[in-house]
Amino acid sequence: MNHNDVERYRKQILLEKIGEDGQRRLGESKVLVAGCGALGTVICNNLVRMGVGTLVIADRDFIERDNLHRQILFDEDDVAANLPKAIAAENKLRKINPSVKIEALVTDINSKNIKEMMSGVNCVIDGTDNFETRYLINDACYSLNIPWIYGGVTGTSGMFYAFVPGKTPCLRCLMNEPPAPGETETCDTVGVLPTAVSVAASMETTEAVKILTGRGSELIGKMVRFNAWDGLWVSFGLKKDDNCPLCVQGRYDFLDSRLMSKTVSLCGRNAMQINPAKKTELDFAALSARLASSGSVDYNEYMLKFSAGDIEISVFKDSRAIIKGVNDEAAAKSAFSKYIGL
Fold first, then answer.
1. What band does 291 get if pLDDT is binned at 50, 70 and 90?
2. Residue 298 sits in which domain range?
3. What share of the chain is helix, strand, coil (3-state, %, to 5)?
4. Do residues 194 and 286 both lie within one domain?
5. I need a labelling partner for 33 at 20 to 30 A (CA). Which of 47, 120, 135, 185 fits?
6. Do residues 197 and 109 both lie within one domain?
7. Which of 128, 201, 212, 131 is nearest to 159 (CA)?
8. What distance lies between CA 248 and its chain's CA centroid?
């Protein structure tokens, strides 16, 4: 470390848990933050201020006004400029700490590119908004022996967990497959407390820093849940599934695209069709009630139609959906996960 580094990180180096050696290790580390929304912006902000060596930011989305109440790296100028989240984040972060190398990737994370973007990475941190991508990250990290930190928040509640290949069960030990569409709440249907996001993202960062600095963690192997509004915290251990498709059977179903949803462009219609890998018969009445506060919604026994702004989603009983107002896969997947849940 040079003099400027010592001066910048002095109060962090003073921490017995980190010290000069821990700071040096952090500065030599490369981290991939998957998703740069609510969780991702807080994680990226923390990592850059703490002095990670290289930060890779991968996100497929652009900034909207309703992001600003919880996505801390963005402002009104970014909305007006219609900037992708990864680029806007990079612009802000370079001003915060120019010594950190930042790679902004405006891309959808998928089975074809995830291993390449994880090249040389020491840890992956989850800032995504959907389960399919998390299961893909889980496959890729366990195949490459890279730890990854899971985090999620809806409403006032959140959770986090450090998955470490060789030391902890994997995500598929917890749940063999992602929840079916419509089974889980999303921030766009039930809302989200910004402070709950900050708590989860900060704890994700803390667990990653423990791993990167070689300090270990008392929380390894424990899922932590909290409610920021009520001040309640609970942790519990996860057990390895003796029949886990990944850990035991050695299958990488998401990395091999076997369990990933299929997205198809509908020629001439400015629309994409999403065919979820996991089928479920949707409860239109329940889904309609969840979506009512986010846009206009109508349904019959065959399909549900929802519209918000320029986006129109037609969902069928088997959870297949047609997303109008989009012309690429990333935008279609974002809209589907945002409102229907995937």
1. very high
2. 262-339
3. 35, 25, 40
4. no
5. 185
6. yes
7. 201
8. 26
Q: How far apart are CA 181 and CA 174, in angstroms?
A: 18
Residue type, 230: D
Of 187, 244, 247, 267, the active-site residue reads 187
CATH number at residue 299: 3.30.310
**Average pLDDT for residues 123-133, to the nearest whole number?**
93
The reply to whether 80 and 166 lie within a common domain is: yes
Distance CA 129, CA 342 (A): 9
CA distances (Å), origin 119, targets 2, 61, 198, 309: 27, 22, 28, 38
Instruction: Phi first, then psi: give them for residue 179, nearest 5 degrees.
Output: -60, 150
Question: Are 177 and 84 contained in the same domain?
Answer: yes
78 and 174 share a domain? yes
Same domain, 206 and 286: no
Longest Cα pair distance anywhere in the chain, in angstroms? Answer: 68
CATH of the domain at 60: 3.40.50.720
Clarify whether 44 is annotated catalytic.
Answer: no
Q: How many domains does the chain have?
A: 2
Tell me the average pLDDT across 243-263.
Answer: 90
**How does DSSP classify residue 62?**
B
Are both 184 and 288 inside the same structural domain?
no
**Same domain? 284 vs 210:** no
Question: Is the residue at 243 inside a domain?
Answer: no
Given this model, what pLDDT does residue 87 score?
A: 94
Question: Which positions ≥6 away from 98 have C-beta within 8 Å?
Answer: none
Count the neighbouring beta carbons within 10 Å of the beta carbon of residue 106: 18
Q: Percent of the chain beyond pLDDT 90? A: 66
- Residue 266 pLDDT level (bands cut at 50, 70, 90): low
d(CA 153, CA 186): 9
Cα separation of 1 and 266, whole Å?
Answer: 54
Three-class SS state of 134? helix
